[in-house]
């Protein structure tokens, strides 16, 4: 009996020692590495006359990403379920930046439509070696009680579609032995958001998928294909999301981001070869701090955030 108690005391002493001495050191080292990595960003690679596919780019963040690519001389495929708006966006970009820009109506959750998109795009503009997976569903009609169809749609668009687009356009990149793949994720892919299970789950899944793909490309010897995952905070592109952020008190901590600044930082990070882009950058330190905590504590903080926002 005494031996077991003594053993527990020793374990607790070790835990406390780790918390007091090791934890701060790990945090400081992580902060230093993060800042060094940010400061030594490479010069952007040129993508002039390359062809890019941007899903969900008729408006909002996707449109701004397409604009950033076009401003660098890249031809763009404006892919969206809203074809009429995509046509307008493509025309605006082509006229302003002097690049080829064409609209395509695509349901990214359907593999056959992605295959057809690749064939049409190759004939219309050229061989695409840049893919930006931006399309996504943000909200349900009822945030707390989504229907089965709404959950299925969110999983298919936010996560499953990445398999189809990656499978099709990654082949282009491998043949050309060059390329960029960007996945627009979310801060909800770093920190679990309670009462947003379908959305946050899909973002965690995308984050994991990108990590696996990077490892597989290295194993296969395709170091010339660069993968970037972007984790932005709340963006002022959707009225309901803006309302949710304001009512939840999130804007009191960090102001809402503008889609233009997120697009600029994301594209620049991709072309500089960054693996993960967290916007704003200081939230990366918060994320790294949280993952060092025991899971029970992380769960408590996740629930506490919801309780706090519900009382605001």
Automatic annotation (TrEMBL):
Keywords tagged on the record: Membrane, Oxidoreductase, Transmembrane, Transmembrane helix
SUPFAM superfamilies associated with the record: NAD(P)-binding Rossmann-fold domains
Gene3D superfamilies for the chain: NAD(P)-binding Rossmann-like Domain (3.40.50.720)
Pfam families from the UniProt entry: adh_short (PF00106)
UniProt keyword annotation of Transmembrane present: yes
InterPro entries on file: NAD(P)-bd_dom_sf (IPR036291), Sc_DH/Rdtase_CS (IPR020904), SDR_fam (IPR002347)
Keyword Phosphoprotein: no
Transmembrane segments: 12-36
Coiled coil start-end: none
PANTHER family xrefs: FI23927P1-RELATED, PKSB
Protein's UniProt name: Short-chain dehydrogenase/reductase family 16C member 6 isoform X2
Species, as recorded: Bactrocera dorsalis
Gene name per UniProt: LOC105224174
């Amino acid at each position: 009996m005494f031996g077991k108690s003594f053993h527990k005391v020793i374990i607790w002493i070790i835990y406390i020692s780790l918390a007091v001495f090791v934890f701060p050191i790990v945090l400081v080292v992580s902060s230093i590495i993060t800042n060094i990595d940010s400061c030594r960003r490479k010069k952007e690679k040129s993508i002039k006359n390359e062809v890019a596919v941007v899903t969900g780019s008729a408006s909002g963040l996707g449109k701004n990403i397409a604009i950033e690519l076009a401003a660098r001389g890249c031809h763009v495929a404006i892919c969206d379920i809203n074809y009429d708006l995509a046509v307008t966006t493509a025309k605006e970009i082509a006229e302003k930046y002097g690049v080829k820009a064409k609209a395509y109506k695509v349901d990214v959750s359907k593999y056959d439509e992605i295959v057809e998109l690749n064939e049409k795009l190759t004939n219309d503009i050229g061989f695409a070696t840049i893919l930006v997976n931006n399309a996504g569903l943000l909200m349900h009609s009822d945030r707390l009680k989504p229907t089965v169809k709404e959950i299925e749609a969110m999983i298919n668009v936010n996560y499953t579609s990445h398999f189809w687009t990656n499978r099709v356009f990654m082949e282009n990149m491998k043949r050309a032995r060059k390329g960029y793949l960007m996945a627009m994720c979310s801060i909800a892919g770093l920190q679990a958001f309670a009462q947003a299970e379908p959305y946050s789950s899909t973002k965690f899944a995308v984050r994991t998928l990108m990590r696996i793909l990077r490892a597989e490309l290295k194993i296969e010897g395709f170091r010339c294909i660069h993968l970037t995952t972007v984790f932005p905070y709340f963006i002022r592109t959707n009225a309901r999301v803006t309302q949710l952020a304001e009512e939840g008190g999130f804007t009191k901590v960090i102001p809402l981001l503008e889609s233009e600044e997120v697009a600029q930082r994301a594209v620049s990070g991709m072309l500089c070869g960054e693996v993960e882009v967290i916007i704003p950058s200081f939230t990366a330190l918060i994320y790294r701090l949280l993952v060092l905590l025991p899971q029970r504590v992380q769960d408590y903080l996740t629930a506490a955030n919801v309780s706090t926002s519900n009382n605001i």
